[in-house]
Amino acid sequence: MTSSPRHIVVAINPTASFGKNPLAGEQTVAALESAGHSVTALRAESFDLLAGKLNRALTLTPDALVVVGGDGMVSLAVNMLAQTSIPFAVVPAGTGNDLARGIGLPVGNITACISAMVESLDREPERLDLGRITSTDGSEVRWFASILSAGFDAIVNERANAMTWPKGKSRYTLALLRELFALKPVRYRLTVDGDSREESAMLISIANNSTMGGGMSVTPEASMRDGLLDVFVLRPLSRLRFLRLFPRVFAGTHVSEPEVLIQRAKTVTLDAPGIVAYADGERVWALPVQVDVVPAAVRVFI
Fold first, then answer.
1. Are strands 7-12 and 267-271 parallel, antiparallel or unpaired?
2. Which helix (H) or strand (E) holds 18?
């Protein structure tokens, strides 16, 4: 039994990682109830229906939220909990799980992750930074925990999200290889902490966390606790050079290459014609976007 029983809402994505971990939600609920917590489990046939259920459940101000799924569920959590007092925890049962990696969870071992999550509820949640995306007219605001990206990788995301095969990380890799044949630089208008410039690049990412796409260490020094964003620019390169550089992204050793630029900032504005932004693997909207970092914007059990 836990020393402090709580009312916990558990939001479960049954199709996370294409249903690779179908019992993760039930295992999470059982573990929380065994620890003495009162659990409200939320399931739905679609992501939108689940979001509606979660929005209603949060109006009752539970003690915590636990999301079971991948970075899409993390995106759902941070967009509902940013700048509120309700903390959340994650059971990484999805494909990407980049927030989980960033906070040190044993990704790939659901049982261990559930145990770690239950134990973390007896600790004070940590406050982590979030990235905030605002439309140019100020009418729309979105939040992200890990990375916003726009360019070649966003095009790959568009293709990968439409694919039903293969499963897991290999789906993104296959989509990348398919789009590689159309690889070409984009002309961006980039403003970093008020300093504007034109930038020809294959992609630009704005990072609050070190990884994206299921463990690609795009910005290995990025931190969710430093009050800064890491702006990653991949300057023009050939297809062959891209193929040689890409495998190094998983180890983060690409950052020393001349085509790679990383700078830190608090505010970033990004624009380019025909380019859609993705954040935490979720489609945002077509550029332009205004992005700033909000320190200690969300409470997370770690």
1. unpaired
2. none
